[in-house]
Amino acid sequence: MALFSQEALNPGVRKREVFGWAMYDFANSGYTTVVITAVFAAYFVGGIAGKAQWATFAWTAALSASYAIVMVTMPSIGAYADLRAAKKRLLALFTAACVVSTAGLAFAGPGNVALAIALIVVSNTFYSYGESLTAAFLPELARPAALGKVSGWGWSFGYFGGMLALGLCLGYVIWAQGQGIPAERFVPVTMVITALLYGAAALVTFWLLGERAQPNPEALRQSGLKASLQRLHRTFAQARSFKDFMWLLLCAVFYQGGVAVAITLAAIYAETEIGFRQQETMVLIFVLNLAAAGGAFAWGYLQDRIGHKIALASTLVGWIATCVIAAITTTKGGFWWAATIAGLCMGSSQSAGRAMAGMFAPQKQLAEFYGLWTFAIRLASIIGPLTYGAITWATGGNQRLAIMSTGVLFVVGLLLLGPVDVRRGREAALRADACAT
Predict the structure, then answer these.
(1) CATH classification code of 13-211+232-436
(2) Residues in a beta bridge with 142
(3) How far apart are the first and last CA of the chain?
(4) Where are the alpha helices (DSSP H) in 270-365?
(5) 3 to each of 141, 143, 149, 156, 432, how far by Cα in Å?
(6) How confident is the model at residue 213 (pLDDT cuts 50, 70, 90)?
(7) pLDDT, position 217
(8) Backbone φ, ψ for residue 54 (5° rounding)
(9) Looking at the predicted structure, is the pLDDT value of residue 168 above 60?
(10) Taking every pair of C-alpha atoms in the chain, what is the biggest distance, in angstroms?
(11) What is the overall mean pLDDT for the chain?
């Protein structure tokens, strides 16, 4: 708790609330680490789909379907949460749904491709909803000058949650392999471990984190897909007057597309191209999370000192180096270097982007603007992995070409970051708040 400086927080915000908020990053990181990155992704390709040529594409397509759902619905959900002051209630609902569907992955065995895809779509959709809503609490908790620092607290703490989940699963996998238990029996147990840890850790968030927003007398009169698309259109129309926020969204579509490739395909690349065994892959991802935790924590302080834009740009340069090294290396040692750089950049780049979005979002529309941020992130999560999967399929499995193409996404993201003016973007948000009072 001593790490959470009171000077970084808004008036009336207690340290225990920030700890509760950070615990949600701790809780949900196990899902991305174990399910999306380290264990289930490789198991889907090698075990459930039997290493078919279309397997990597099917995995990325399943994730893309969930992201498409989030893209068209999250802005409406964010607006609803703002109007009804319902961020915490919705977060609890989405968390429960993700926990149950994650545990359900235990029933997806070899050949059960349709069941695995359905459960991934459901669980990843609800995970994404929760990720967006918890981000919308950040500007309520942190002072504007400390958004990077507080965001970094959450991201770095979250990676320790991912390491705990992966560590528990790794311990079980090592024991199971020693007993001669096959993957189709020990992978389901790791899904249950991940789901239980997610649910248990999230309870701390719901106990300590309060809902500071006040309900708006207006109420959303419509529901369903049509209302979601209309809300998305209205929010985008309004957000167009926030020039720097829109540039940041466009930048995020590209660089987060590259980050999504690293998250969803790192284990598959390590095992199919470099020759890692599943146990080695889990150790690799564990160390990657350790590096990411350190990067997110340290970069949060550096970001508030040197500026959001320079901090984010620096991480994108690191990502470009990661892609080049990963594409040309043929040894496990070389790939370890790429993974270490990726780990340092992963937490810092995502934390930096989340903090910048908070700088540009009007206080009374936090969930709605973070809904747009989620729209951009999920669009990126479709473009990046789906492009990677398509290139791999079209070239007969050439993942080195696919990872090199990922580097182009980071180059474009770096170029699009250029027009962003942080001071101008913050002033636009303050003017919107002044007009709303």
Answers:
(1) 1.20.1250.20
(2) 9
(3) 35
(4) 278-306, 308-328, 332-360
(5) 15, 16, 10, 12, 33
(6) low
(7) 56
(8) -90, 0
(9) yes
(10) 67
(11) 85
